[in-house]
Structure formats: structure tokens, C-alpha cells
Design goal:
The structure is a homodimer of 156-residue chains. Chain A starts with a helix and ends in a 10-residue tail after the last helix. In chain A, helix 7 crosses helix 8. The longest helix of chain A has 11 residues. The mean pLDDT of chain A is 91. In chain A, the strands form two sheets. Chain A has a three-stranded mixed β-sheet. A three-stranded mixed β-sheet of chain A has the order 4-5-6. Chain A is globular, with a radius of gyration of 18 Å. In chain A, strand 4, helix 7 and strand 5 form a beta-alpha-beta unit. By secondary structure, chain A is α/β, with parallel strands linked by helices. Chain A is built from eight helices and six strands, in the order H-E-H-E-E-H-H-H-H-E-H-E-E-H. Chains A and B meet through helix 2, helix 3, helix 4, helix 5 and helix 7 of A and helix 2, helix 3, helix 4, helix 5 and helix 7 of B.
């Protein structure tokens, strides 16, 4: 079983994608992040969901989250509307804050994907064919393949 | 809408849970992590999926993932079986490597949860009632609540 066989569709956006639609895609796919590709489909970054929240939530509230209770629903809507006026490029951290990318070739083995996720503390790897992103493998997907089936009565 | 209303079931284990069953529970729930509680149900840690992989994959392969291609499926099985001989406590990083926990009270607002996730770069917050974990809210769950519904023709 190779990476190309385990890869699943994963929300993928470009640097110029509308940030609101990107965040909505993440929510709809119930995934913890997005893969950002350049205009040629090559991987540029993985945008984690918490980064979207870092963009939306003012720094003084991040530093003291209970302060958020002073804001009403209208204020929350206004904060989120910042995404409507932004692109994915705006939401990404500065390049110097980004790590090496969690990517593997389509012929990577399951253990190789596990090693990349482990090394980079990443919940997913993007899978490439010919340098372009064809999907991703998440940690639960990989564990489901690597580990023996749980007994049906399992209570962890 | 408060944290207790948005909280969903989330795989929760104790320090003495069998590590293999814990990893299987993460895979089955298709979640990027587990909440670890102490014997009284109080939050102890969030165990990310990549940490399980760091426990399983030898350091020399983490440092050079393509080396994993030299291992066959039997070797992969043997590595994973290390989980059968371990508890969740064994898999957790050393306490000094752990951050403050991503937890909120049941009456936290959506923005407060967003602020905690943003501050801690966390893909989820555990929700507490009376000091005990009652569930969790993930980033996509929170974005789904906070953001306006996407137009059905949306292509991000």
C-alpha cells in the first residue's frame, strides 16, 4: 500500500483564494487544516485551523481568552467578517515561521508517511504525483491502515 | 451558544489505558488526537496523533523518513506492536515538553474557545463541567458555528 492508494480528497486552496470560503471549506470537510498550493498545483503550505483563528481573534483576546466574554454575537460576526476581505495569503503565517512541508511522493510507504508526520508533528501529509498535490493522508487514516482492527468490544 | 452546547463526544482515555486501544480509538473516531484524563476525569493532557507516531517510529527513521522504505510490512507490524506493550502514560511526551492545556469551562463562549485554540495552536478544546471533561470542540466544528453558511456553489 503506497501513499497514492491511501490518499483521500482534502480541502485545497490557492494563495489567492478567498479566506472566508477557505475557512468554510475546512469546516465543511471537518478537517483540521487546508493544503495551500501555488498556481501550478505545487504545495506551498499547510494552513492549520488554529491559524485561521489567530487571524480572526485580536491579539489582546488571545492573550487573555476570558476577555472574549465581553464581546457579543455582533462583535463576533464582525471579527469573522475580516476573512471576507482577505485571501489565504493574508491568513498564512510569515514564511520564516513556517516549517518544512509535510509532503511525500505517491510511492511513499505507510511507515515513511508515519515518519514524516512524526518528525514534523503534523496531523497529515500531502501526497504528490509529478510535484502536484493529489490528496492527503491524515494520522487517523494512517493508523487505521497500520494498526490491527480493534476488537468490537474495545473500550479504551 | 456556550461550550457545553457545542461540545461533542471525543475519544477520551486515562493514563493507564492500553496504548494500542487508544490509538485504535483515535483512528475509529477519525480525530487528530485524544483527551487524556486522570482517574477522577480531570484533564491531564491532549495526546496528538503525531505523538503516537513519534512513539512508534524509531528516531533514526524520523530523521530520514525515506529510510522507512527499507522496512517491510512485518517490520512495520512489529513497530506498531510496541503500542500493545504500553500505556497511554508511556506514549505521552515528558511533562516539561507539554504546554498549558486547551480547556474551557462549559459556559465559555464561541469566541473564548477560538481564543484558546488560537493562543495554543490547538485543533481542539476540551470542555469541562465541574472540572471533568464532558467532550470537546474542534476547529472545524467551531468554524461551522461561527461563520456564515457557505453558498452551495462555493468553490474555494
Amino acid at each position: 500500500m503506497r501513499a497514492r492508494d491511501l490518499a483521500e480528497d482534502f480541502p485545497t486552496v490557492t494563495l489567492t483564494s478567498d479566506a472566508m470560503r477557505a475557512a468554510q471549506a475546512m469546516a465543511q470537510a471537518r478537517q483540521p487544516g487546508l493544503i495551500v498550493v501555488d498556481e501550478r498545483g505545487r504545495p506551498h503550505a499547510v494552513l492549520g485551523g488554529s491559524q485561521v483563528l489567530r487571524f480572526v481573534i485580536p491579539a489582546y483576546i488571545q492573550e487573555d481568552p476570558p476577555l472574549a466574554r465581553a464581546l457579543d454575537a455582533d462583535a463576533a460576526d464582525e471579527l469573522c467578517r475580516r476573512l471576507e476581505r482577505s485571501t489565504v495569503r493574508d491568513v498564512l503565517p510569515e514564511p520564516q515561521d513556517r516549517d518544512e512541508l509535510p509532503v511525500v511522493d505517491g510511492d511513499a510507504t505507510a511507515l515513511e508517511m508515519a515518519a514524516v508526520m512524526a518528525r514534523m508533528h503534523s496531523p497529515l501529509v500531502a501526497v504528490l504525483e509529478g510535484g502536484k498535490v493529489i490528496g492527503a493522508v491524515t494520522v487517523p487514516r494512517l493508523l487505521d491502515y497500520l494498526l490491527p482492527a480493534a476488537p468490537t468490544t474495545a473500550t479504551p
